[in-house]
Design goal:
Elements (H helix, E strand, L loop, with lengths): L26 E6 L2 H12 L3 H25 L2 E8 L5 E6 L1 E2 L2 E6 L2 E3 L2 E3 L6 E6 L2 E4 L5 E3 L2 H28 L19 H5 L14 E4 H5 L9
Parallel strand pairs: 1-11
Antiparallel strand pairs: 1-8, 2-3, 4-9, 5-8, 6-7, 9-10
Helix pairs in contact: 1-2, 2-3
């Protein structure tokens, strides 16, 4: 049984990125932007065109906030006793509540403590705590991670992507091409040959020993063995 809430509840911070590592029980959602945006971002820095850098920074922040809002609105807590089904789902009461969320954003990808590549790789690590505070009783209950992984990650990705594109269309009138098999549209203003020259990189920081979902690969499993 699922209960709904009139408005999403504000999230609580999961950890302090300046002084702490993500807790082991957290689930990490990794969201990255198209390669062409990183190329344009670096070009804006090198060619002293701050309007491009500022517009991309704004669009990136709006995409991040849209993804966080999507999580607050849709992730449910498992309240009380739940029986587990063979599929991994559980049967019981699901209710909204206050989540513990922290986003860590990087302009480049890190590997073994070093920043990698020649262009920007704008991406976000969003960490969600294993429990939240249920609206109905104020108690801590487990987050429904199974539904998040199997049903909501695609919605989070679409929300993130659409907010990014809409912001750049509004600020810079940038055109995007059709989505490829990786699920993202690239900027029409950046040549495909230049994009191909910078293969996708996955950031490995901050270090985290819990669940890690690279969202594009969870939504499109065929990518898991192509980018590493």
């Amino acid at each position: 049984m699922t209960t709904k809430h009139a408005a999403p509840l504000p999230a609580l911070p999961l950890f302090d990125p300046g002084t702490e590592r993500p807790p082991f029980g957290a689930a990490e959602l990794y969201l990255d932007t198209p390669t062409s945006i990183g190329i344009l971002y670096l070009a804006g820095i090198l060619e002293d065109q701050p309007e491009y850098v500022e517009a991309i920074d704004t669009a990136w922040a709006e995409a991040r906030e849209a993804a966080l809002r999507c999580l607050r609105e849709n992730v449910m807590l498992k309240v009380g006793y739940h029986s587990r089904l063979p599929s991994g789902r559980s049967v019981g009461v699901f209710t909204p509540g206050r989540l513990y969320l922290t986003a860590v954003s990087h302009p480049q990808a890190s590997w073994k403590g070093e920043w990698q590549g020649d262009v920007a790789r704008l991406h976000d690590h969003i960490y969600i705590g294993p429990e939240g505070i249920a609206a109905q009783d104020g108690q801590h209950w487990p987050v429904d991670l199974h539904n998040l992984r199997t049903q909501l990650l695609s919605l989070v990705e679409i929300t993130y992507k659409d907010a990014l594109q809409q912001s750049l269309r509004a600020s810079l009138n940038l055109p995007f091409g059709p989505s490829g098999d990786e699920g993202y549209s690239e900027l029409d203003t950046v040549s495909p040959d230049l994009i191909a020259a910078y293969p996708r990189l996955i950031c490995r920081a901050p270090r985290h020993g819990g669940i890690r979902w690279i969202v594009r690969e969870q939504v499109r499993p065929w990518l898991r063995y192509r980018d590493h």
